[in-house]
Amino acid sequence: MTMADERFFHRAYARIVRIFWALAVGGTTAAFVFRGWTWSAGFALGAAISWVNFRWWKRVTEALGSPPPRARWAVLLGLRYLLLAGGAYAILRLTPISVPAALAGLFVAVAAVIVEILVELVYARNGALDHPDL
User: Fold this and answer.
1) Residue 67 located in a structural domain
2) Is the pLDDT of residue 104 over 90?
3) Which of 10, 86, 89, 110 has an alpha carbon 20 to 30 Å from 132's alpha carbon atom?
4) What domain range includes position 103?
5) What percent of the chain has pLDDT over 70?
């Protein structure tokens, strides 16, 4: 990978993180304004889980090409979803937090990546290969 490629991917990742937090804060605020604190807390919980999962996937992709992980690491990698699901289930069953809002919050990382794809498509159509950070 060339230095230009590394710079491109670093910039794209930085934009995805900024878009993620804008969507998370905006969604949490909108949920509070239109549906109250139970929806706001649910969206924030879903966005937090989405962030943790996004960071875990980033670590997995950074580890590609390195020596294979130990068996213990592979087991922990698989158990992370059980831990997240168990924690979310307990919080949602024992509190009045909105389940639909939490499910919507889980898609914040996906939405951030889709927005980044759209940004890249706009710049590719304009022929700007090395566009400034947004």
Assistant:
1) yes
2) yes
3) 110
4) 3-126
5) 86
Say how many domains are in the chain.
1
Burial 75-109 (b: 16+ CB within 10 A, else e): eeeeeeeeebeeebeeebeeeebbeebbebbbebb
Question: Which residue, among 4, 29, 22, has the nearest Cα to 111 in the 3D structure?
Answer: 22
| Domain-embedded: residue 23 | yes
Length of the chain: 134
Take residue 82 and report the two structure tokens written for it.
């059980």
Dist CA 124 CA 90 (whole Å): 45
Q: Kindly tell me if the per-residue pLDDT of 24 is higher than 70.
A: yes
Q: What is the pLDDT of residues 111-124, one digit of tens each?
A: 999 999 998 888 87
Residue 107 lies in a domain: yes
Let me know if residue 132 belongs to a domain: no
Q: For residue 100, is pLDDT > 80? A: yes
Tell me the pTM. Answer: 0.78
- In one-letter notation, the amino acid at residue 33 is V
R_g of the chain, CA atoms, integer Å? 18
